[in-house]
Amino acid sequence: MNIILLGPPGAGKGTQAQRLVDRHGMRQLSTGDMLRAAVKAETPVGLQAKAVMERGELVSDEIVSALIDAELTALGASAGVIFDGYPRTVAQAESLDAILASHDRSLDYVVELDVDEDALVERITGRFSCATCGKGYHDKFEQPAQPGTCDKCGGHDFKRRPDDNEETVRTRMAEYRAKTAPILPFYEARGIVRRIDGMADIDAVTASLESIVAGAPV
Ligand code: AP5
Ligand code: MG
Ligand code: ZN
Q1: Which of 71, 74, 83 is nearest to 112 (CA)?
Q2: Could you give the percent of the chain with pLDDT greater than 70?
Q3: Ligand 1: does its nearest atom lie under 6 Å from the Cβ of 201?
Q4: Above 60 in pLDDT, residue 46?
Q5: pTM of the complete model
Q6: Residues with CB under 5 A from ligand 2 (ion)
Q7: Residue of 16, 21, 142, 171 to test ligand 1 pocket, by largest number of atoms within 8 Å of CB
Q8: Helix (H, G, I), strand (E, B) or coil at 142
Q9: Which of 35, 172, 180 is nearest to 117 (CA)?
Q10: What integer is the mean pLDDT of 23-34?
Q11: Torsions phi, psi for 119 (to 5 deg)
Q12: Which of 4, 109, 125, 155 could bond 83 through an S-S bridge, CB–CB 3.0 to 4.6 Å?
């Protein structure tokens, strides 16, 4: 099973991908996470991407497609993959076809998280994550059971993303509308797009996603 989670910033792609990883042993390939790791490690890719990400614009197609190709090579044939935040342009969608074919994989579903843009700023400005294990949280919608302690690893350090401010979020949304939403017709023509109400609560969204992954009609 190989699926793409598609949706604007704050739609819940990362949140839901983490749950599929925990429950089904799938692998989450998030180009955003890969780029943030590269920025932190100050690799050549990271140095190039840092300012672009802080502005909320898209990093080049070549960079992100190379990251995905490398991750799939490292992964081998074993686990199913959830693409989170990739592809984001028609050019990336075309590259992904070639990359998947070269790894003997094919795409099962493109799941679009349908959300109301007005809610996304609140979701994003309230987001934080565990600095140790990366588990995602929200000030209002998903707090640790015990304040200040990560549910998953027991860590006490949390962090926020530098691009999670209202101004950058607006740019990220505009980029999504202009460059990413146009990839939907590309996949609709193949009949593999499934739409989920991303405004439902986190567990309800997971339930809808689970039924897609199980191959059942939603
Ligand atoms: P990336 O890291 O992919 O960011 P994004 O697409 O803007 O998406 P987010 O991670 O902000 O949102 P999400 O959908 O994962 O939401 P989450 O689940 O965390 O990309 C960052 C940057 O890297 C880009 O701007 C670009 O510069 C670059 N980049 C990355 N990939 C690229 C590519 N392929 N090409 C070019 N450039 C690329 O949820 C958000 C919050 O809401 C959380 O706190 C969560 O707890 C909460 N929440 C989630 N679901 C719900 C719900 N149903 N109800 C209430 N709260 C919810
Ligand atoms: Mg994310
Ligand atoms: Zn943790």
Answers
A1: 83
A2: 99
A3: yes
A4: yes
A5: 0.95
A6: 14
A7: 142
A8: strand
A9: 172
A10: 95
A11: -80, -15
A12: 4
Candidates 22, 17, 26; CA nearest to 202 is: 17
Report, as an integer, the average pLDDT of 125-133.
96
Residue 172: its pLDDT value, please?
96
Check if 180 has its Cβ closer than 6 Å to any atom of ligand 1.
Answer: no
The owner of tokens 């190039």 is 48
> What burial class does residue 112 get, using C-beta atoms within 10 Å of its C-beta: 0-12 exposed, 13-18 middle, 19+ buried?
buried
φ, ψ of residue 201 in degrees (nearest 5): -70, 165
97: Cβ below 6 Å to ligand 1?
no
Mean model confidence pLDDT for the chain: 95
pLDDT at 215 exceeding the cut of 80? no
**123, exposed or middle or buried, with CB in 10 Å at 0-12, 13-18, 19+?**
buried
Predicted confidence at residue 118, as pLDDT, reads 87
- Ligand 1 pocket test, pick from 138, 139, 161, 203 with the greatest ligand atom count within 8 Å of Cβ, gives 138
